[in-house]
Amino acid sequence: MIAVLVVMVFQVLFGIAYVNGDSMEPAFHEGNVLILKKWGHPNKGEIVTAYIQELDRTVVKRVLAVEGDQIMVHEDQIYLNGLKAAETASKEQKEQEFFLLPGQYFLIGDHQSVSLDSRTFGCVGREDICGIVICRLF
């Protein structure tokens, strides 16, 4: 009975995710198993899993911006609130601008050249965040 209770509590508060692809290298690699917490709001720099309806799958990405922030993608640079935040892998990246509304997040992969992220699918709402990564099992 205690084991069943422990499993139920774990499933409510925590989750497990698997890394598919190499968009988060070098932090995570294909096949890594991640433990997630399902509560709280992600902060900039934290890694989350999110269900992306447009892709019909769950992705693992880093939070680059949160509500109230402005993102500008210009040539091979990504700017957060006017300051350089990251470099994109291609000068062919189209120019984009995002103003994050309450409850929105801009997610980006660590390995820019292969990452399908908010530059592709746009900002993600809090309701689409599945969990915040707290550790990698293997």
Please, could you describe this protein's structure?
With 138 residues, this protein is mainly beta. The protein has a single domain (2-65, 103-136), classed as Umud Fragment, subunit A, CATH 2.10.109. Helix content is 12%, strand content 43%. The chain has helices at residues 2-13, 118-121; strands at 14-18, 33-37, 47-52, 57-66, 70-74, 77-80, 83-87, 96-99, 104-108, 124-125, 129-136. The strands form 2 sheets. Strands 1-2-11-3-4-9-10 form a 7-stranded antiparallel β-sheet. It has a 4-stranded antiparallel β-sheet with strand order 7-6-5-8, with no helix packed on it. A hairpin with a 2-residue loop joins strand 5 and strand 6. The longest helix has 12 residues, at 2-13. The chain is globular.
Q: Helix proportion of residues, in percent?
A: 10-25%
- Computed structural class: mainly beta
Using only CA atoms, what is the Rg?
Answer: 16 Å
CATH top level class name: Mainly Beta
Instruction: Report strand %.
Output: 35-45%
At CATH level 2, the architecture is Ribbon
Runs with pLDDT <50, length 5+? none
So what's the overall shape? globular
Query: How many individual β-strands?
Result: 11
Run of helices and strands: HEEEEEEEEEHEE
| C-alpha termini separation | 29 Å
- What CATH calls the topology is Umud Fragment, subunit A
Q: What would the average pLDDT be, to the nearest integer?
A: 92
CATH superfamily placement: Umud Fragment, subunit A
Side by side, the strands of the main sheet go: 1-2-11-3-4-9-10
Domain unit count: 1
Sheet having the most strands: 7 strands, antiparallel
